[in-house]
Design brief:
The chain is α+β, with helices and mostly antiparallel strands. It has one domain: 3-Layer(bab) Sandwich (Archease, Possible Chaperone, Chain: A, domain 1). The chain is built from 2 helices and 8 strands. Helix content is about 25%, strand content about 40%. The model has no long low-confidence stretch (mean pLDDT about 95). About 35% of the residues are buried. The strands form 2 sheets. Strands 1, 2, 6, 7 and 8 form a 5-stranded antiparallel beta sheet that branches. A 3-stranded antiparallel beta sheet has the order 3-5-4, covered by helices on one side.
Length: about 140
């Protein structure tokens, strides 16, 4: 059996993306958030010192994924919150509730790699594969 890879970086013209996988939609959404934050700073540098409740709403799985990532990026932009792990507590096609664990950005310990400016709808996809694994792709402006 092949190794399960939760997310990988996808190169894209003048942008960058994440292709994520999950054994459930909840796991997929968590892995997509992990992947986005891995673009900003190495995950091994981020400690789960603080838990933050996060909610997102939209009208379908693909738009909800974008809304979720936008909300997390907003938390980084306004409060410098770096997420490390994510527990989805409610998920349906219209609403997501989660707890994000991480810590505020500390430039003495965190090496910022990329500035993620926005979550886009470019090449957005989310689907369940024939093997039951959920796969999604999101492209970010950097």
């Amino acid at each position: 059996m092949a190794e399960f890879i939760p997310y990988e970086v996808v190169e894209h013209t003048a942008e960058i993306g994440i292709k994520g996988r999950g054994r459930s939609r909840q796991e997929l959404f968590a892995h997509m958030a992990e992947g986005m934050f891995s673009l900003i700073a190495p995950p091994e540098e981020v400690q789960p010192r603080q838990a933050v409740s996060v909610e997102a709403e939209s009208d379908g799985w693909d738009r909800l994924l974008v809304a979720w990532l936008k909300e997390l990026l907003y938390r980084f932009d306004t409060g410098r919150f770096l997420g490390r792990s994510f527990r989805i507590t409610r998920l349906d096609p219209f609403r997501l509730e989660a707890v994000a664990s991480g810590e505020p950005l500390d430039l003495s310990r965190h090496h910022v790699d990329k500035e993620v400016k926005a979550v886009t709808y470019c090449d957005l996809s989310i689907a369940e594969g024939p093997d039951g694994i959920w796969v999604a792709q999101v492209i970010f402006d950097i």
